[in-house]
Amino acid sequence: MAVQEIVPSWVGATAKQMARAVRRGDTSATRVVADHLDHVAVADPALSAFRAVRAGEAIVEAEKVDEQEDLANLPLAGVPVAVKENIAVAGLPTWNGSAAARTPVAGSDHEIVRRLRGAGAVVLGVTRMPELGAWALTDDETAVTRNPWRTDRTPGGSSGGAAAAVAAGMVPIAHGNDGFGSVRIPAACCGLVGLKPGRGVVPAEIGADSWLGMFENGILATTVADAALGFSVLAGRRPDKLVEPPRLRVAVSLRSAVPGVRPDGPNRDAVAAAARLLAAAGHGAVTADPAYPPSLGPRGVATWLAGVAHDAQAARLDRRALQSRTRWHIALGEWAERRGFVREADRAAWRDRAVGFFTDHGVDLLLTPALAAAPPPALHWSRRSWLANMVSNIRYAPYAAPWNIAGLPGIVVPMGLRPDGLPLAVQLIGPPGSELLLLAVAGQFEMAAPWPRHAPGWPRVSTPTG
To answer: Phi, psi at residue 56, to the nearest 5°?
Structure first.
């Protein structure tokens, strides 16, 4: 009886490894994509990360990549990627988190998708999010999206499906977007690198008005190098090699903008560990809290409410078909605008204060917890009240939103594990234009304290290292 050769799968390799192998001719885009489609078919039923998988279309597109004569200029040659379901992908509806929020089949790609395809990436499908992206919890009437680290916990939101797909190895990188923490929170929940660029660096054009300018398109990845590669593509730049940063001065703060909400012990320990790594890398660390104005929380929440309301108005959704929590969110957003609680002047004042924090304290970056507590249970939160959803979101994830209001770049980096085995993470915030610096410091963390690239047990395949 002949011995059958076991061919290793490309599932679990990094995006850089896959693209390099395709460019060299060591493998084909078709093979890489087929491996990932096979893994999605096995893994996604347990996690519900994808809303729709483009199996046949993805293979056809991979074949077209293989037919190109010059692959040298394709930084993502043959790399399978996922796109969050609130961004237009030609030939698919834009679901926006539920059937009730779905808009018609898109006739063309969003600019972000166009850039990914132009770099040689193949879109496997679109990933799930909560209705209208309003929550840091991902579920709808059809499914609860689950965290690969522990399936009884949420992967966060609103880019929860994207984070679950990457953490389980279904794609090496995924697009996400971040209006109130929606890339960084899922990255923290799922042990990933999550980058939110600063305002104007990457095309936004999300929903009606990108939540009054707070939403940014970003990237989720298992390595800093892959995050940097994905960012360069989204930003329309040539991929740059990250260079070791000069000696920096980093402010360390445990304070959140929500009075009374403080980090638990494991999250405080994660910040302390990150501060020690900074010191070991030659950087200076000082304790300094941003001066969050008392009005930031209420005014920020009002803007969040209004952003969701604008999306519902622009899409002319049937509100009767939306989830109860979403209807409340929209109604409160409209009320807040009528009462004058949503003002650009307030957002501009906080942005000036946030940018001034770095010069006032003579620091280059700010280090904070990524989360205040463990990710909440994976439940049908869409069946619960608006207040229950609000309380859950604010208690566990208060650290991301101020930087959307300010429009500053931020990155989340894994930093060990909680006693229950769930990932820990920290957040770095920088002044305008500091995306590459944030990535470089994140790379120092990765070299000094490497993290598991995937959740335990995912993916269950043999991976090449080419």
So the answer is: -65, -45
Residues 6+ apart with CB under 8 A from 45: none
Q: Would you please indicate which residues are annotated as catalytic (active-site) residues?
A: 84, 158, 182
**336-346: string of b/e by CB count within 10 Å (b at 16+)?**
bbeeebbeeeb
In angstroms, the Cα distances linking 172 to 222, 319, 323 are 7, 36, 32
Rg (the chain; Cα; Å):
21
Whole-prediction pTM? 0.97
Contact criterion met (CB below 8 Å) for 220 and 189: no
| Number of residues written out for the chain | 466
Query: d(Cα 72, Cα 22) in Å, to the nearest integer?
Result: 10
CA distance 389 to 382: 8
Q: What gap in Å lies between CA 250 and CA 60, rounded to an integer?
A: 48
Helices 224-234 and 111-118: crossing angle in degrees, nearest 10, is 120
In the beta sheet, which residues pair with residue 139?
A: 144
Per-residue model confidence as pLDDT tens digits over 178-237: 999 999 999 999 999 999 999 999 999 999 999 999 999 999 999 999 999 999 999 999
Tokens (6 digits) for 350 = 């906080």
Q: What are phi and psi of 21, to 5 degrees?
A: -65, -40
- How far apart CA 332 and CA 314 sit, in angstroms, is 17
Residue 17 identity (one-letter amino acid): Q
Residue 240 has pLDDT above 90, yes or no: no
